[in-house]
């Protein structure tokens, strides 16, 4: 139906309503059309690592047709909001599995949240109105007012008499906006076309109640519903009747839970998804089955949703017709509780699969899911993705074919936090574009890259792609599309542990680059290899995770000679210098391109560039051409009026670049000059003058013609060349001492056209860090962090854009004291090859609280991002480069800045130089190992005051000729090669001189010669004064400027001492540590307040002397290992091996009655005369016998000796053996039994006779009676003895137990 037409009684909309009434209200004969197929296999989902949320917080998100999602964000500290595209990270050579982020480079528009000249009051609800024609406007809604904010054109407002509820808001084009509101029981259409107007909607009896919802169909089609009815019609404004829309009668749909409008089929103008709570059944009405009437929708019974745990309440997620021209045959149902369900709408029957989501983030609120349209690459179709705080992707496609990623079983007891993890030893690589999918192609902390063959073909540059997003027309698409780390990804194909102990945090080709705390990195000067140590050895001091070499390296000093150059009129003032390849006509002041510029691109002699300069004077005076013509003279030639440099310009800096070779077939474009102005950056393209035709003779100069392109919006107070194609700019702050407030980046495209990008506010100047064979990265330093971004991504950032969600390369933190943010610096080391292209530094000048001095600090990233093969979580080495006078008062154009000076020498590749008002400080970078192939370390700086004040930013300094080396690389000032044989491999040259032209004394040009030389041993820079007596090597004469200490206390290694305190002695190892005497194991001050040290514990083989406060212990007797008194052989407390301690003496073997237990002699048990090695008695004292337990027990009282308790071996005097049988054990007694007599020591039987038988019988009776009585007495006595023996046994066993336990 065409927009604006009125549907008649037989319109397609009416047919659709009647069909829905038939299908849903009246039911279908024979049951419903089909039953949904509940997927038996759940669909596992994983969470992408990049969060959608950002620090400046998106206020709203909405999908934009063919452009995907856009986000509305507030610009920091302004009343503006920015409408930004949501780009999948693949748009800038990042694996699309990382998720998505806000891309401010593709900002659609901006709008001010203002009403006239005032900011809007708080309390509004902000939403985006996405027009079918591509424009986006903002609607700020209050309960009784609506503000329409157009990026272009006046804002409009409409007020209501009572609070209203916005049901739907959209726009057809930039001039036609529709807002559907509920005003009590009435529906109103607020139309801005372009002025606001109000119309009423008549729904034909459908109640307008709270909870009513609305969705847009195609064009002006609108769907309305509440819990009982559904309505569909067209929103058409009638200026005559005051009513809007054409709405037939509503359809009764009791139990309606949710509805969504989508386009699941090609050619459809709107398919309905209806979820109805029909008793115990849910009904989904979606696309028709094949062959069904196109105007009707089929219904699917989804009672089985209950079987998968779905709730009876929830809502649909579907792509509406206004969001996409292409059909999207997938929708999601999100229950009020539980995981979402995925519905494949075109399956017959429809397939519903429950999603298995990763574990929720700890402490995070419940996810609010939505469908976002993401653009995976420039020109690629929109991909519709389920998203909450992160993007969620299907696990099967996430992990397939990538050996660096592990996806766990969703039913695992302890699944990974995001549903996936990197393989052991690996970490996420945020910037990769290799032909193989490797999300975790970087190495984790503690692992380093191991060389491996690259199975991938060489990268092929991508052809230019159509750019549907508003990007600069000269954007370098080849950089953005081709990526920057393909070769680096191949080199990082294998990750190996850095060491066996886990102490090394990062390494490169087996060389440890940084250590985990508390270990320190120690670099061997000979091999250049680093290793981790627990403490620094002699001659080294701990600093910033590194054992810094002290006395082993000589300090450096600087000397300066400055001469004001003649040849420039005294009234002339020069405020900026810029080296140039241009030549000048001495007579007319015209500029010429040098010879050979058109023949081979720009193969100019670098020395020629250093000998000619452009001096820019204050506005109103034309620049002058400066040619250095002698040791203290310069030829100054004013440029002709009307030349490329406007005399009215206030030039702050000038940087000249060579145009890319072969950008024009004629080769006319030769040079590109960047002019830094307070109002912006001017780009001058120098070509051979058109009047001269093609370059007549490449061996002759050609008149130069220049065309100017201004880059507005980039105020410039300083500029620095970063590489052959890039220049960084900054504008200094006017007041506060916190560095700068605006920065920019200008880069020449492949055709020589300039591209401009913004930098984070307040950041220092960036640095370009090369990556092997794949391009370059930009190292920038926003507040509290440093970021490494591919050049293509960095160039896409607009000024003032918010932060990206990628992790920081380094967290610089908030060190105490005030000062600017860090500046990024790169020192090339090209002789090392592609695997180690240079050293990266972050430099800043800090001003501690209280003033009095400033501190030059640096963070050194050895080999940049190469050790891990990644751009985040790098491990820096921190150092205090120099302690300087208080420079906190110098800010803006006069503030100190750091530059890199490259020498090209493998052992001394360059210096970090800090240029301050009237002062220069230089810190050498020294490389160790054969040919400087090992570690490079930043050493302490030496400084010198200049004879004239005023040295400011680098654009006021230029090196003179004779100091260029081909290995220096672009973006660095070149210094002379170090003379061979002038120093040992780890020491600086004896003397090096660098010559500059500099603007000093306000505006005069001076020649400055800086001489660097090694101080004699024990000398301190800058004048090689004697070091403090507590120092062994120093950076200054004070006690706190020692490079190594002569003496120090182990618990305070940074406090140097001239001598050891009383009671302490120099360590025999010679490291200067003051320790206890060798005879002492521990010592401390004798008095609580300090003073002399006294021994508190003696070393082995020593004992206290007995003298209070003695600092030493005396040796034990030679027979003792330890003792309680020195020199006494009977005072041993421990014995040497092979001897045993017995009663304070050391003996070779234990004497009788003792046994060896450990290293001591222990007594045998009670009454034991001799025992075995186990302590069991083998011979007892007289009167005792060895019981079966190995203890001694007493013999019977009648025994003189015994073998056991019932058998004597000898009787006590006066007693005889009671047994007449000598073969039987027997006790002793004084009388024998009846019928026996006392024989020779033993009872014997009596002999029979004829004496009276009667007497014998009588006696026999008497004897029997006596015997019976005796037996009773013996039994009683024996019982008593047995009881006594048992008690003795118990006592012996107890004694043995006590002996065994050591008591």
From TrEMBL:
Ranges annotated as spanning the membrane: 1251-1274
CDD domains xref list: FU
Signal peptide: 1-27
Keywords: Membrane, Signal, Transmembrane, Transmembrane helix
Top-rank taxon: Eukaryota
InterPro entries: Furin_repeat, Giardia_VSA, Growth_fac_rcpt_cys_sf
Protein name, per record: Serine/threonine protein kinase
Organism listed in the record: Fonticula alba (Slime mold)
